[in-house]
Amino acid sequence: MDRFVALSLVGQHDVAQRLGLNVTDLTCLGHILGAGTTAMTAGELAEQANLTTGAVTGVLNRLERAGYAHRQADPTDRRRVRIVADDSAVARLTAVYEPFYRRLTEVFEGYSPTEISVLADWFSRAEEQMRAHIDELRSSAAES
């Protein structure tokens, strides 16, 4: 698993470079796209990406300049803004990620629906543990 995680980090760096982004911006763009039609606030993005709201401001500035996302007034509260992916963002990311997703689909074809369910459960639980570990690391760093 350590090799997979390390390779994933290298891959994300290469994808980010190909798209003219850094890894943090790419990660945030993934969260924005993952929200689908429910545009998220900067605070929600900060929470999901484990960043400060100040850091997210910089991310959004860079994503806007690169043409991946933009801020949009919240229709129910004009004091808040929502983050919306630009239409071209999906196409630009799909062009880079699709070959990898095609390969993953081939891998999943070798598993039964029950096995895939177990894998999905494992990844969900592992994500929770990763978030807890990151929170602990940041807490102990703040205390130092």
Q: Roughly how much helix do the residues carry, as a percent range? A: over 70%
The assigned structural class equals: mainly alpha
Mean pLDDT: 93
Major sheet attributes: 3 strands, antiparallel
Question: Order of helices and strands, N to C?
Answer: HHEHHEEHH
Q: Point out poorly predicted stretches.
A: none
Record the strand order, biggest sheet: 1-3-2
Strand content: 5-15%
Radius of gyration: 17 Å
Q: Note the overall shape.
A: globular
Distance between the termini: 30 Å
How many β-strand stretches?
A: 3
**Tally of separate helices:** 6
What does this structure look like?
The chain is built from 6 helices and 3 strands, in the order ααβααββαα. It has helices spanning about 1-20, 25-35, 40-50, 55-65, 85-110, 115-144, and strands spanning about 40, 70-75, 80-85. Helix 2 (about 25-35) packs across helix 3, helix 2 packs across helix 4 and helix 3 (about 40-50) packs across helix 4. The two termini are about 30 Å apart.
